[in-house]
Design a protein that fits this description.
The structure holds two protein chains of two kinds.
Chain A lengths: L2 H19 L3 H21 L3 H26 L3 H10 L3 H23 L12 H8 L4 H22 L2 H5 L1
Helix pairs in contact in A: 1-2, 2-3
Chain B lengths: L5 H21 L3 H25 L4 H31 L13
The chains are: A mainly alpha, B mainly alpha.
């Protein structure tokens, strides 16, 4: 048994299940950070230390801090927890869970049919990733930078408080 | 370290993706929908890294970097939209956005 894979896998699954069932958004966010950190540990185990570091710094760091900032700006109180519980009757869960379970069973069934493919234990260093990113994938890196620029401009434009500017 | 079969990593990715899909389908709060989309993008990235690890190639990790860029751009625009929704309608219910005109 490879505990360095199974323990974070179980932690990630449980934490993700907690994320989608919480009523309070801040609690869900904390569980999401736990889930992302355990996925980062799985990346370490799979021989991708650079990606594990990116997962911790950008996903669990930058993107989650963005969520926290927005929640602080919204200033949600205990009132929203009551609102959430009124939005989430138990029967709402039944349909989506049934359909998604069917999809999941089908996926696992297909994966099981492909036979056992062992993974290598080779570690791929950041240098190799960088050479590939700025070599054969240079166009993709440029397009990603343009996408990020578009995201910045779009977020600035949408996040502006137009009512205040008019006064 | 023992060698893992690739299916286990892919099954974990499928499981996380399914959980994110349930979140998108069930929740009505915009914050939770955005978080579930993050979970789904992360699961797709996990599948890429697992496949990259299977063939000991760096391409899977390059793809994860691209997914990271997409996730960052998506979440910044999504949260700005969420702020606008809350400012205009004083609610985080996505169904309230069906009332907007033009």
């Amino acid at each position: 048994m490879d505990w360095f894979f199974y323990i974070p896998a179980v932690v990630a699954t449980v934490a993700t299940a907690m994320v989608i069932t919480r009523l309070n958004a801040v609690h869900a966010l904390l569980y999401l950070i736990v889930s992302l950190l355990s996925v980062a540990m799985i990346f370490f185990r799979l021989g991708a230390p650079f990606i594990a570091a990116l997962e911790v710094i950008i996903y669990a760091g930058a993107i989650m801090v963005l969520f926290v900032f927005v929640m602080m700006m919204l200033n949600l109180g205990p009132r929203t927890v009551e609102q959430e519980s009124s939005w989430l009757p138990t029967r709402m869960w039944l349909g989506p869970i049934t359909l998604t379970t069917i999809l999941l069973i089908e996926l696992i069934f297909i994966l099981g049919q492909s036979g056992h493919q062992p993974m290598t234990n080779e570690t791929i260093e950041a240098k190799q990733v960088g050479i590939a990113l700025f070599g054969p994938y240079l166009l993709g890196a440029e397009l990603a930078s343009m996408l990020l620029l578009g995201g910045v401009v779009g977020a600035y434009h949408l996040g502006r408080n137009s009512r205040e500017e008019r006064n | 370290m023992p060698v893992l079969p690739m299916e286990q990593g892919l099954i974990l990715a499928a499981l996380l993706f399914a959980l994110g899909l349930v979140g998108v389908l069930v929740r009505r709060n915009v914050i939770f929908i955005l978080m579930s989309i993050e979970i789904m993008l992360n699961a797709a990235g996990l599948a890429f890294v697992v496949a990259g690890s299977r063939w000991a190639q760096e391409d899977g990790q390059v793809m994860f970097v691209f997914i990271l860029a997409v996730a960052a751009a998506e979440v910044s625009v999504g949260l700005a939209l969420l702020l606008q929704l809350y400012r205009r309608l004083q609610t985080l219910d996505v169904d309230a956005a069906s009332k907007m005109r033009g």
